[in-house]
Amino acid sequence: MIVAKKIPDFSSLLETTFEQMILTVHRRKVASGVLKIFSLHHFQKNKYQHTRNEAYRETFLLKIFSNNHFFKNLYA
């Protein structure tokens, strides 16, 4: 008796790995952006604009961590 083995469908596997790659790249971009924002060198170049920069940092972090912004620009 011959038993036919089902050939595995690798297309779904490829899709998931590709999506994970995109997610990883996007997370690295976000992480590097957050690191740039939190670096003191970036924010204390001009002490006169320090409070303005802090307000900018807070709004930027809110934009990053709000799910709508994060997932809307994921595949852009």
How would you characterize the overall build of this protein?
This protein has 76 residues and is mainly alpha-helical. It has a domain at 30-76. The chain contains 4 helices and no strands. It has helices at 11-38, 40-43, 50-65, 67-72. The protein is rod-shaped. The N and C termini lie far apart (53 Å). The mean pLDDT is 63.
Beta strand count: 0
* Secondary-structure element order, N to C: HHHH
Please tell me the overall pLDDT.
63
> What summary fits the major beta sheet?
none
Question: What tags apply to this protein structure?
Answer:
76 residues; mainly alpha
How are the SSEs ordered, and which strands pair?
Layout (H helix, E strand, L loop, with lengths): L10 H28 L1 H4 L6 H16 L1 H6 L4
Q: What is the structure about, briefly put?
A:
The protein has helices at residues 11-38, 40-43, 50-65, 67-72. It is mainly α and 76 residues long.
